[in-house]
Amino acid sequence: MSQSKVDLYAAIRRDHDRNGLSQRALQRKYNVTWRTVRRALDGQWPEPRKKPRPRESRLDPYKQLIDEMLRADLDAPAKQRHTAQRIFDRLVDEHDARDISYPMVRVHVKARRPEIRRQAGLGPQAMFVPQTHLPGTEAEVDFGEFHIVLAGKMTKVYLFSLRLSYSGKAVHRVFATAGQEAFFEGRPVLRDVEGRRSADGSGSVRARWSG
Predict the structure, then answer these.
(1) For 184-204, how does the pLDDT look when each residue is reduced to its tens digit (9 = 90+)?
(2) Which residues, listed in sequence order, are joined to residue 155 by a DSSP beta bridge?
């Protein structure tokens, strides 16, 4: 209930009972309609303020899917749990979610993950220090292995993945090894990203080795 309206109704009644102000005078003094004055003098109370309806989001159709992924993470090893980037990629690849963005998913996952844990009775999350990344200043590099058919043979290769920490934009290259020579060969990719950094802000890009 709005406290200001409660005070307004009480003031109208007080001026009417003690000071003898007419309804028209009360309208002028408090800049309200005659209906408001009438309700106040009849002893009514302001109606409770209606809660606004939650704003619809393009993410709404996918929130149940995100919840299912986060619940599956409760029993998964730490390194196999979904990151916000992985959830976004799955929504796009598996559910054709072309109308959503990575920042939209990241904000929702950040808020929803601790709620899922509390609902499962796992208690509050451990304390952590939020990371802050300036535009165009840092990137994360990692390798992942997978198999492809190359020249008719099943061959293990390594995916060089570079992701800008601020925007989440990423580039990928495939190499035969995951050694330092592959990393150094992948450095032109870093320069390529730096050359197109207008999408991520200005400044140089610093790679952080996470493999």
Answers:
(1) 776 566 556 555 544 444 344
(2) 148
